[in-house]
């Protein structure tokens, strides 16, 4: 990681300003600006799209190359966490199960 | 003044059950921000300055992979775009307030505080201006969540320095995203958006500056819109 603390500091401030501006936007501009219907429809696809774009490479490309085999503990542990999240609707339980599964699988594969 | 205090405390109380879920995430964020390479002061500053859980997780992950600042900023904006809807939604209830109050409350407009505040505003009935003390309720909920987020981040940062790297805690970021994405997959369009974005992200993983992430998000959103199809109210059905 080559990013300097100063650059990271600017980044944090920039993220803060962007987030605050988004939150304040229509509270201040109500009546002068409306959200177009297409954007309103698009917004609900933001979380599944962005989160999946972060998840898939993490699970499928752990070392930079595609690993879809059973020898990929991250893929297996992640899939298990997904099933737990779906069945239990409990995010923290899913994270805990996925983490423990990764440790167990890593220990098994190392043997 | 008594009414204001009562509303403020009612807002705090409404937020408390939510904090049971928020606190562990603040701790996980603190741990992960350190393991991503953020200095402790900046990891904490992000919780105070940005105050947006999912954007902070995403930023920590991207900082850890060495993504350039502009990509992290653009991603933050994409992840937080949903707050435009919250802003529009609470605006009619806050329009009678002065600018100082509007600017103060906007800072607290997270997913959780929005959920609590808009529920209260809806309960207050048909009055478009909301109850006279909605701002105190909003402020109570906001400050409760803000305090919990700051303290749990601090606890996570404290723990983070104690945890050996062999625990592969970076994987908890992916797990957190998995736990967050599953409830958003409610119908075919959202599943299509998730799958297409994921596949594009894998195919574009070698792109420089993490631009593949932005491309994947855009493709996923477009695919979601396409699968959903254009709603045609009043159009003759075949």
Quick description:
The complex is a heterodimer of chains A (111) and B (238). With 111 residues, chain A is an all-alpha fold. Chain A has helices spanning 5-29, 37-43, 46-60, 73-88, 91-110.
Description:
The complex is a heterodimer of chains A (111) and B (238). Chain A is mainly α. Chain A is 75% helix and 0% strand. Chain A folds into 2 domains: 1-34; 43-110, no CATH class. In chain A, α4 (73-88) packs antiparallel against α5. Chain A is elongated. Chain B is mainly alpha-helical. Chain B folds into 2 domains: 2-166, no CATH class; 185-228, no CATH class. Residues 126-130 and 234-238 of chain B have low confidence and may be disordered. Classes of the chains: A mainly alpha (111), B mainly alpha (238). Chains A and B meet through α1, α2, α3, α4 and α5 of A and α1, α2, α3, α4 and α5 of B.
User: Biggest sheet of chain A: strands, sense, closure?
Assistant: none
Beta-strand share of residues of chain A: under 5%
- Percent of residues in helices of chain B: over 70%
Structural class of chain A: mainly alpha
N-end to C-end Cα span of chain B: 61 Å
In terms of quaternary structure, the protein is heterodimer
**What spatial form of chain B do the alpha-carbon principal axes imply?**
globular
Low-pLDDT parts of chain A are none
Largest sheet of chain B: none
Radius of gyration of chain A: 20 Å
What would the keywords be for this entry?
heterodimer; A: 111 residues; mainly alpha; 0% strand; B: mainly alpha; 11 helices
How do the strands and helices of this protein lay out in sequence?
The complex is a heterodimer of chains A (111) and B (238).
Chain A: H1 5-29, H2 37-43, H3 46-60, H4 73-88, H5 91-110
Helix pairs in contact in A: 4-5
Chain B: H1 2-35, H2 40-49, H3 53-64, H4 69-80, H5 82-94, H6 99-107, H7 111-123, H8 134-160, H9 171-181, H10 188-203, H11 211-228
């Amino acid at each position: 990681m080559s990013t300097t603390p100063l650059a990271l500091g600017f980044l944090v401030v920039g993220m803060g300003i962007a987030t605050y501006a988004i939150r304040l936007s229509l509270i201040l501009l109500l009546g002068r600006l409306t959200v177009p219907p297409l954007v309103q429809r698009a917004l609900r696809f933001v979380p599944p799209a962005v989160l999946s774009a972060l998840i898939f490479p993490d699970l499928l490309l752990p070392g930079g190359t595609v690993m879809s085999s059973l020898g990929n503990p991250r893929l297996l542990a992640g899939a298990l966490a997904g099933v737990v999240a779906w069945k239990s609707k409990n995010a923290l339980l899913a994270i805990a199960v996925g983490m423990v599964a990764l440790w167990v699988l890593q220990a098994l594969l190392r043997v | 003044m008594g009414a204001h205090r009562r509303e403020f405390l009612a807002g705090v109380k409404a937020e408390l059950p939510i904090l049971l879920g928020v606190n562990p995430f603040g701790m996980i964020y603190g741990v992960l921000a350190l393991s991503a390479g953020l200095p402790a002061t900046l990891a904490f500053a992000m919780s105070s300055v940005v105050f947006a859980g999912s954007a902070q997780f995403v930023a920590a992950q991207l900082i850890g992979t060495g993504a350039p600042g502009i990509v992290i900023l653009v991603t933050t904006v994409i992840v937080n775009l949903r707050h435009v809807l919250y802003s529009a939604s609470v605006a009619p209830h806050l329009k009678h307030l002065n600018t100082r109050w509007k600017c103060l409350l906007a800072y607290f407009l997270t997913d959780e505080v929005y959920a609590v505040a808009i529920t209260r505003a809806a309960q207050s009935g048909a009055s478009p201006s909301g109850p006279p003390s909605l701002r105190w309720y909003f402020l109570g909920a906001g400050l409760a969540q803000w305090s919990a987020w700051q303290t749990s981040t601090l606890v996570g940062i404290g723990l983070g320095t104690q945890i050996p790297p062999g625990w592969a805690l970076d994987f908890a970021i992916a797990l957190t995203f998995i736990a967050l994405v599953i409830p958003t997959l409610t119908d075919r369009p959202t599943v299509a958006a998730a799958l297409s974005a994921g596949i594009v992200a894998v195919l574009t993983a070698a792109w420089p500056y993490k631009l593949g992430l932005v491309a994947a998000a855009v493709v996923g959103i477009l695919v979601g819109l396409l699968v959903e199809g254009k709603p045609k109210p009043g159009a003759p059905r075949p």
